[in-house]
Automatic annotation (TrEMBL):
One Gene Ontology term from the biological process aspect of the record: glutamate biosynthetic process
EC number: 3.5.1.2
Reactions it catalyzes: L-glutamine + H2O = L-glutamate + NH4(+)
MF GO annotations: glutaminase activity
Binding of substrate, residues: 69, 119, 163, 170, 194, 245, 263
Pfam family membership, one: Glutaminase
Protein name as it appears in the record: Glutaminase
Domain of life assignment: Bacteria
Amino acid sequence: MPMNDTAALYGTLRRIAETVGRAEPAGRVAHYIPVLAEADPARFGMALAFPDGETIGVGEWRHRFSIQSISKVFALVLALAHRGEHLWTRVGREPSGNPFNSLVQLEYEQGIPRNPFINAGALAVTDELLDHTDQPCELMRDFLREESGAPDLDFDQRVADSEAAHIDRNAALGHLMADYGNLRHPVPQVLHHYVRQCAVEMSCEEVARAGGVVTRHGLRADGSRLLSRGDAKRVNAIMLTCGAYDAAGEFAFRVGLPGKSGVSGGIMAVVPGRYTLCVWSPGLDRRGNSVAGMDALDRFTTETGCSVF
């Protein structure tokens, strides 16, 4: 299949949606954030965005959901753009091999998170952004509005409040990092902005458009350069090796693309230079990744042959 054949790609998305729709809902919704626990695991949407912003989609591809850890990609992009290479003195670039909220690994490695996509790593990135602006979550929201072409997108305050009320594990990660000297701002301040960035509400269409900044090798939607090609390459590399936490190997094996998941059921995936995908379905596997989303992306790369491998 030609990789830019819109009609053929749309046909592929429709077949995937029909297959997923016939299957019994699988997985369990995120139960540790009460608002997310209300989601219907049978819901499904999938979108594809070309580098020029054209999008196609199926299912509930225009339904908004809180993007949760997909936001970590955009936080990393903004930190690299505004703070530069110094970030890598505070957070590593290796797969964790452990759950995304592991305290044991963080203590073993003396407060240096293994990568920017586990929760401790995302807190370090947020802390780094606080050296650039006192409102990093608003910086991200405004960036996402511009890149997605959706000036009305905003935080889901109900999700943010629910997450903030059940944040003990992330607070423990923050305090442990502060004890090792790897957090410069007050833990409550860092947690506030981290929770709000996770509560940004977007649709599959909007996530796919916003993700174009890494698909286009660092160019923004308006054509201006935000990241160097080298930094964009590195963001994609970390998405491939770390974006699905302790299931990163399984994601590479089945999907074969840089990707980033979130516990609300969203997954963003990138075919560098070609297009960005976003799929959403709230039923999760035991590692916190959407079951239907993984299946859909697996089917997509198998049918189209667009895996990076």
